[in-house]
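Here is one chain, start to finish.
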Amino acid sequence: MSPNGAVHGAAAAAIANAVKASGAIVQMHPDQFLKLLDREKEPVVITATGWLFGTKYKYLFNYRGFFFYTESRTQLRIPSGAEIIASEKIWVPSGM
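Its structure:
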């Protein structure tokens, strides 16, 4: 195997391990995300802002053992009872 192939193999293994460690991540439309968020009394929402051809607002929260993720071109109205944790970046595996 070439050194370059070994690097790509190691990167693929790291991504696979990250997915195993984090569990399932469910990507949703922002409207669905907000409806699910309303079911939780005091949700903890992680937010980040990214930029690729325009601003994207990214959101992640845990509900019954699953992580739910969405992104939007506009800021979402998070319920008032939510704890918001601002992060520099939210990373989800490719293909999301």
